[in-house]
Write a structure and sequence with these properties.
The chain is of the alpha+beta class. 35% of the residues lie in helices and 21% in strands.
Length: 204
């Protein structure tokens, strides 16, 4: 159970500035500031040298959002599971390995993991609405079309072990949902070719 205690927060962080510039200046308030600045520049220069790779592909299927975790007590012990997660993962593995047989799972920082889920346009929409839906003007608002974050959850979890080693490598996500006459999921993943020097062990 999560508990919120504002008094504890105030005790820990009330003396921390609200602006980024002030926080940086606070960190640099030390006699070793010059050394720290040099280390910062070294890391920035190294990051600038690292090439970014981009992987884009489309999986043609009717997108299904991740469902809420459920619990059962099979075997006498409570177990948490997500309905359909194993099926989605199995189908993704089959799809990805067929289309990218030589691809090794990403093990470096992922700077963007983007998922665009295209749901089937309702057949009862008038033609004018179908055009607007195909153009992305009318999108799947409403409770009957699934939460946009649950689509991301479904199509990131299923990629663990095949496309990437771990979803904790992801630093930024973008998930969108649209309508289309041709349902599908479009992926765009941007990742670094290698870890910045000295950061892999520190972060991991």
């Amino acid at each position: 159970m999560i508990e919120f205690d504002n008094d504890i927060y105030e005790t820990l962080y009330s003396n921390i500035p609200n602006t980024q510039e002030e926080r940086v200046n606070l960190i640099l308030q030390t006699k070793n500031a010059d050394v720290i600045k040099q280390n910062i520049q070294t890391t920035v220069d190294d990051l600038a040298r690292i090439r970014k790779r981009k992987l884009t592909f489309t999986w043609y299927l009717e997108p299904v959002p991740s469902k809420r975790p459920r619990a059962n007590s099979s075997g006498g012990y409570p177990q948490i599971y997500v309905p359909n997660a194993a099926l989605i993962k199995r189908e993704f593995q089959k799809f990805f390995r067929t289309n990218f047989p030589k691809f090794k799972p990403i093990h470096t920082p992922i700077t963007l993991y983007q998922v665009r889920s295209y749901l089937r346009t309702p057949t009862w929409y008038p033609r004018s609405y179908k055009v607007l839906a195909e153009l992305g003007v009318i999108i799947p608002w409403g409770k009957n079309h699934g939460d946009v974050d649950n689509f991301y959850k479904a199509y990131s979890d299923c990629a663990i072990g095949t496309l990437m080693e771990d979803d904790r490598l992801i630093g930024r996500i973008n998930s969108e949902k649209f309508f289309s006459l041709k349902p599908r999921v479009e992926f765009e993943i941007t990742f670094l070719e290698r870890w910045p020097k000295g950061l892999e062990k520190l972060i991991k």
